[in-house]
Amino acid sequence: MKNEIYSAAQLMAYIQEVGFLPLLDSGIRGYSAEDVVADDCRYVVFPDGGWDWPLWKWKGPVVTEGNCVYGKFFAGKAGFVSRQWWPHLCNYRRSVHPAPAEGSIEEAILQTLREHGSLITRQLRAACGFTGPKMRSRFDAYITRLQMGCHIVTEDFVYPTDRHGREYGWGWSLLTTPEQLYGREACQCDCTPDESRQLLLNHLRQLLPNATEKQICKLIL
Question: What is the pTM of this model?
Protein backbone atom coordinates (compact mmCIF):
# COMPACT_ATOMS: atom_id res chain seq x y z
CA MET A 1 0.00 0.00 0.00
CA LYS A 2 1.06 3.62 -0.50
CA ASN A 3 2.50 5.97 2.09
CA GLU A 4 2.66 9.23 0.15
CA ILE A 5 -0.72 10.96 0.36
CA TYR A 6 -0.43 14.64 1.25
CA SER A 7 -3.88 16.06 0.49
CA ALA A 8 -7.61 15.41 0.54
CA ALA A 9 -7.59 15.33 -3.26
CA GLN A 10 -4.98 12.57 -3.30
CA LEU A 11 -6.96 10.62 -0.73
CA MET A 12 -10.11 10.95 -2.84
CA ALA A 13 -8.26 9.55 -5.86
CA TYR A 14 -6.85 6.70 -3.80
CA ILE A 15 -10.29 5.69 -2.51
CA GLN A 16 -11.50 5.49 -6.10
CA GLU A 17 -8.51 3.29 -6.91
CA VAL A 18 -8.93 0.80 -4.05
CA GLY A 19 -12.73 0.94 -3.63
CA PHE A 20 -12.73 0.33 0.12
CA LEU A 21 -10.58 2.06 2.74
CA PRO A 22 -10.98 1.94 6.53
CA LEU A 23 -10.15 5.25 8.20
CA LEU A 24 -8.02 3.85 11.03
CA ASP A 25 -6.41 0.51 11.90
CA SER A 26 -8.17 -2.29 10.03
CA GLY A 27 -6.17 -5.16 11.50
CA ILE A 28 -4.50 -5.63 8.10
CA ARG A 29 -1.02 -4.19 7.89
CA GLY A 30 -0.91 -0.99 5.85
CA TYR A 31 -4.59 -1.02 4.98
CA SER A 32 -6.19 2.18 6.26
CA ALA A 33 -6.25 5.86 5.43
CA GLU A 34 -4.11 6.43 8.51
CA ASP A 35 -1.48 4.08 7.10
CA VAL A 36 -1.31 5.53 3.60
CA VAL A 37 -1.02 9.24 4.41
CA ALA A 38 2.43 10.81 4.61
CA ASP A 39 4.08 11.04 8.02
CA ASP A 40 3.55 14.81 8.07
CA CYS A 41 -0.21 14.24 7.95
CA ARG A 42 -0.46 12.01 11.00
CA TYR A 43 -1.85 13.00 14.39
CA VAL A 44 0.43 15.25 16.43
CA VAL A 45 0.03 16.86 19.86
CA PHE A 46 1.72 20.21 20.52
CA PRO A 47 3.41 21.21 23.81
CA ASP A 48 0.59 23.66 24.59
CA GLY A 49 -1.95 20.84 24.45
CA GLY A 50 -3.24 21.65 20.98
CA TRP A 51 -3.29 19.11 18.19
CA ASP A 52 -3.24 18.79 14.46
CA TRP A 53 -4.44 15.91 12.31
CA PRO A 54 -4.76 16.69 8.58
CA LEU A 55 -6.34 13.31 7.85
CA TRP A 56 -9.15 14.04 10.32
CA LYS A 57 -9.73 17.45 8.73
CA TRP A 58 -9.88 15.89 5.25
CA LYS A 59 -12.84 13.69 6.15
CA GLY A 60 -15.42 16.38 5.41
CA PRO A 61 -14.15 17.33 1.94
CA VAL A 62 -13.59 13.68 1.04
CA VAL A 63 -17.16 12.77 2.03
CA THR A 64 -18.79 15.74 0.30
CA GLU A 65 -16.57 15.94 -2.81
CA GLY A 66 -14.83 12.57 -3.12
CA ASN A 67 -17.52 10.50 -4.84
CA CYS A 68 -17.52 8.02 -1.97
CA VAL A 69 -19.68 6.93 0.96
CA TYR A 70 -18.58 7.18 4.59
CA GLY A 71 -19.78 5.36 7.68
CA LYS A 72 -19.07 2.51 10.06
CA PHE A 73 -18.86 -0.22 7.44
CA PHE A 74 -15.85 -2.27 8.51
CA ALA A 75 -16.53 -4.44 11.56
CA GLY A 76 -18.20 -1.45 13.20
CA LYS A 77 -15.31 0.89 12.34
CA ALA A 78 -15.48 3.91 10.05
CA GLY A 79 -14.21 4.04 6.52
CA PHE A 80 -14.81 4.98 2.90
CA VAL A 81 -16.46 3.07 0.03
CA SER A 82 -16.29 4.33 -3.54
CA ARG A 83 -19.62 5.03 -5.24
CA GLN A 84 -18.67 2.41 -7.83
CA TRP A 85 -18.59 -0.34 -5.19
CA TRP A 86 -21.34 0.99 -2.92
CA PRO A 87 -24.27 -0.74 -4.74
CA HIS A 88 -22.61 -4.15 -4.26
CA LEU A 89 -21.80 -3.56 -0.59
CA CYS A 90 -25.33 -2.26 -0.04
CA ASN A 91 -26.86 -5.19 -1.91
CA TYR A 92 -24.99 -7.80 0.11
CA ARG A 93 -25.13 -6.10 3.51
CA ARG A 94 -28.86 -5.52 3.35
CA SER A 95 -29.37 -9.22 2.72
CA VAL A 96 -27.48 -9.91 5.94
CA HIS A 97 -28.84 -6.90 7.86
CA PRO A 98 -32.32 -6.37 6.37
CA ALA A 99 -34.55 -3.38 6.99
CA PRO A 100 -35.54 -3.16 10.66
CA ALA A 101 -38.74 -4.86 11.74
CA GLU A 102 -41.84 -2.72 12.08
CA GLY A 103 -42.14 -1.35 15.60
CA SER A 104 -38.46 -1.91 16.44
CA ILE A 105 -36.18 0.77 17.85
CA GLU A 106 -34.05 0.66 14.70
CA GLU A 107 -37.14 1.25 12.57
CA ALA A 108 -38.07 4.26 14.71
CA ILE A 109 -34.56 5.68 14.33
CA LEU A 110 -34.67 5.32 10.55
CA GLN A 111 -38.13 6.82 10.32
CA THR A 112 -37.07 9.81 12.42
CA LEU A 113 -34.05 10.34 10.20
CA ARG A 114 -36.17 10.12 7.03
CA GLU A 115 -38.61 12.68 8.41
CA HIS A 116 -35.84 15.17 9.18
CA GLY A 117 -33.63 14.44 6.17
CA SER A 118 -30.41 14.63 8.17
CA LEU A 119 -29.43 15.15 11.81
CA ILE A 120 -26.23 15.16 13.80
CA THR A 121 -26.00 12.19 16.12
CA ARG A 122 -26.98 13.99 19.32
CA GLN A 123 -30.01 15.59 17.64
CA LEU A 124 -31.15 12.21 16.36
CA ARG A 125 -30.62 10.68 19.79
CA ALA A 126 -32.75 13.38 21.43
CA ALA A 127 -35.45 13.11 18.75
CA CYS A 128 -35.68 9.38 19.43
CA GLY A 129 -35.97 9.88 23.19
CA PHE A 130 -32.59 8.48 24.21
CA THR A 131 -32.02 11.17 26.79
CA GLY A 132 -31.69 9.23 30.05
CA PRO A 133 -28.58 8.04 31.91
CA LYS A 134 -26.30 5.66 29.97
CA MET A 135 -28.51 6.03 26.87
CA ARG A 136 -25.72 7.38 24.66
CA SER A 137 -23.76 4.13 24.31
CA ARG A 138 -26.94 2.14 23.77
CA PHE A 139 -28.09 4.51 21.03
CA ASP A 140 -24.65 4.50 19.39
CA ALA A 141 -24.84 0.70 19.18
CA TYR A 142 -28.12 0.95 17.22
CA ILE A 143 -26.59 3.53 14.87
CA THR A 144 -23.53 1.35 14.27
CA ARG A 145 -25.72 -1.64 13.39
CA LEU A 146 -27.75 0.47 10.98
CA GLN A 147 -24.55 1.73 9.35
CA MET A 148 -23.18 -1.80 9.05
CA GLY A 149 -26.42 -2.68 7.24
CA CYS A 150 -25.89 0.28 4.87
CA HIS A 151 -29.12 1.91 6.09
CA ILE A 152 -27.41 5.06 7.49
CA VAL A 153 -24.42 7.02 6.15
CA THR A 154 -22.56 10.21 7.05
CA GLU A 155 -23.47 13.20 4.89
CA ASP A 156 -20.89 15.60 6.34
CA PHE A 157 -19.28 16.72 9.59
CA VAL A 158 -20.49 19.66 11.68
CA TYR A 159 -18.10 21.58 13.94
CA PRO A 160 -18.85 24.02 16.75
CA THR A 161 -17.37 27.51 16.35
CA ASP A 162 -15.76 29.83 18.87
CA ARG A 163 -16.66 33.50 19.33
CA HIS A 164 -14.39 34.36 16.40
CA GLY A 165 -16.26 31.99 14.09
CA ARG A 166 -13.44 29.46 13.97
CA GLU A 167 -14.25 25.77 13.97
CA TYR A 168 -12.83 23.63 16.75
CA GLY A 169 -13.08 20.15 18.26
CA TRP A 170 -13.55 16.72 16.72
CA GLY A 171 -16.82 17.49 14.98
CA TRP A 172 -20.14 15.65 14.83
CA SER A 173 -21.34 13.28 12.13
CA LEU A 174 -24.31 14.56 10.15
CA LEU A 175 -26.31 11.37 9.53
CA THR A 176 -28.76 10.59 6.77
CA THR A 177 -29.95 7.64 4.69
CA PRO A 178 -28.12 6.74 1.47
CA GLU A 179 -31.40 7.01 -0.44
CA GLN A 180 -31.83 10.57 0.79
CA LEU A 181 -28.25 11.49 -0.10
CA TYR A 182 -27.66 9.61 -3.35
CA GLY A 183 -31.07 8.41 -4.53
CA ARG A 184 -32.61 4.94 -4.46
CA GLU A 185 -30.98 3.79 -7.71
CA ALA A 186 -27.50 4.40 -6.29
CA CYS A 187 -28.20 1.70 -3.68
CA GLN A 188 -29.25 -0.97 -6.18
CA CYS A 189 -27.50 -3.29 -8.62
CA ASP A 190 -28.43 -6.09 -11.01
CA CYS A 191 -26.64 -8.83 -9.04
CA THR A 192 -27.96 -11.16 -6.41
CA PRO A 193 -26.58 -10.60 -2.90
CA ASP A 194 -24.39 -13.71 -3.27
CA GLU A 195 -23.02 -12.44 -6.57
CA SER A 196 -22.23 -9.08 -4.98
CA ARG A 197 -20.51 -10.84 -2.09
CA GLN A 198 -18.33 -12.82 -4.49
CA LEU A 199 -17.36 -9.67 -6.37
CA LEU A 200 -16.42 -8.00 -3.08
CA LEU A 201 -14.34 -11.00 -2.00
CA ASN A 202 -12.54 -11.25 -5.32
CA HIS A 203 -11.72 -7.54 -5.32
CA LEU A 204 -10.38 -7.55 -1.76
CA ARG A 205 -8.35 -10.71 -2.33
CA GLN A 206 -6.64 -9.02 -5.25
CA LEU A 207 -6.20 -5.75 -3.37
CA LEU A 208 -4.88 -7.40 -0.19
CA PRO A 209 -2.82 -10.45 -1.23
CA ASN A 210 -1.16 -10.72 2.18
CA ALA A 211 -4.40 -10.66 4.17
CA THR A 212 -5.90 -13.88 5.47
CA GLU A 213 -9.28 -15.10 4.29
CA LYS A 214 -10.64 -14.44 7.78
CA GLN A 215 -9.47 -10.83 7.66
CA ILE A 216 -11.00 -10.27 4.23
CA CYS A 217 -14.33 -11.84 5.20
CA LYS A 218 -14.44 -9.68 8.31
CA LEU A 219 -14.30 -6.56 6.13
CA ILE A 220 -17.46 -7.39 4.20
CA LEU A 221 -19.63 -9.21 6.77
Answer: 0.93
